[in-house]
Amino acid sequence: MKLIYMKRLILSMLAFGAFQLTGFGEAPKPLNVGLARVIITPETLVRLTGYSSRDVPFEAVHHDLWAKAMAFGDEKKGYRIIITVDLLGIPHRITEKVREALSKEIGILPANLSICASHTHSGPQIGNIVSHFHKPLDPDELAEIALYAMGLVPKLKDLAMDAIANATPSLVSHSKGEVGFAINRRTSINPNGVTDHSLPVMKITDMKGETKAVLVNYACHAVTLGPLNNVVHGDWVGEAQLQMEENLPPGAMAMVVIGCGADQNSSPRMNTDNPEMDLVYAKDQGKQIADEVQRLLATNDWKGIGQLPEGKMKYVELTFATMPDPKKLAADAKGSGRTSNYSLLLLGRMARSGDIPEKIDYPIQVWDFGKELVMIFMAGEVVVDYALRLKQELGEDRVWVNAYANDMPCYIPSLRILREGGYEAETAMIGYEKPSKFTEDVEESIMSGIYAILPKSSK
């Protein structure tokens, strides 16, 4: 009997040890982590972006818009910084200017800085989709866009430096929940449209275990507010940040990055009969995020991260299927509406220099946190197929995919969506001044690029 008891005791101890190694109970190695935030709400009246029907500047500020930074590392080991911005997207030229400024300041490598946009459709135009509007912007509006974009670069550089200055030893861990308000919006094309309801969460605590910050990922468009609400607002993303911070200790910070949600809409949304209901919907969706994060924080289901992320970057060429015909553009430009605005802009570029790209250089970035987590950053409006494929091939619990990161070139369709056609495959290119849809090698080109820079342990 004693022998049997001892065997059971040893097995129990081994099981407990395994739990300790896989759960947060192991107490991961401390990492230096700093946090900072800054308001980026426009100080002058500008046109909001995301909806083509808006033709006047915003009427009020309902939410302040924020940029927030999380910096890992120290002077000896170098810094890795993720910045979130409450904007529709972040143009590549702004990301590169911030990288250049930080490189001069602290020698940061390009792969170790990522800027991720919330994709709110109630934020200022900063040059992402100027041709998306029904009519050309007037000179004063163009000037305001240019000034806002120019002012964003020093703000983001200073924000990153503030996060570095605030860095202290911290414990980092991650977990995953689920929230269900995202729906596939392509049901008219694909009635069985897929979704990704996972909610990856990264937690930063001080050495006593008190939460300093959470970083949350969800794959959904920030389009709960429709164009009839012509106010500055963070949409469900802004509400989620506000409500998470209400639940966290005083001074703690909540950040949200968007997953592969280009074909996912929030539901409910855009009440055209009673637009004020959009504000209620957004608040409720933010609460769903905040409640799920709070539930996770009350559990022990957290995996510790004790390694600074190793960043890698790669650019892959994505090719457009066709080039536009100047005569057809001219005929369309004589009309009115969004496509005419696009045709006029594209025709002007062709007349000046013929500079219509046949390809784009698409940025891919990977942060390897070790065996527990690999974070993939993808530019533009990426459809859900990419995240689902990566999770299937690399492991559901280890892969974290951020879209709308570092650049906003256009929609990034999968091969399936490209063949199905529709907005995300083709007509959305009008808003981004792109000549046509992509060729059918788009998905494999991107996936090959991702695999080329993934850590060996992931492959």
Summarize the structure in short.
The chain has 459 residues and is of the alpha/beta class. Helix content is 32%, strand content 25%. Helix 2 (92-106) runs parallel beside helix 3, helix 4 (235-247) crosses helix 5 (277-297) and helix 6 packs across helix 7.
Blueprint of the fold:
Elements: H1 2-22, E1 31-39, E2 48-49, E3 60-61, E4 66-74, E5 78-85, H2 92-106, E6 113-117, E7 123-124, H3 139-165, E8 168-178, E9 182-184, E10 198-205, E11 211-218, E12 231-232, H4 235-247, E13 253-258, E14 264-266, H5 277-297, E15 303-305, E16 310-319, H6 326-333, H7 338-352, E17 359-368, E18 374-378, E19 381-382, H8 384-394, E20 399-402, E21 411-412, H9 415-420, H10 442-453
Parallel strand pairs: 3-12, 5-6, 11-13, 18-20, 19-21
Antiparallel strand pairs: 1-4, 1-8, 2-7, 4-5, 8-10, 8-15, 9-14, 10-11, 16-17, 17-18
Structure description:
The radius of gyration is 23 Å and the shape is globular. The protein contains ten helices and 21 strands. Helix 2 runs parallel beside helix 3, helix 4 crosses helix 5 (277-297) and helix 6 packs across helix 7. The chain is of the alpha/beta class and 459 residues long. It has one domain (28-323, 358-459). Strand 17 and strand 18 form a beta hairpin.
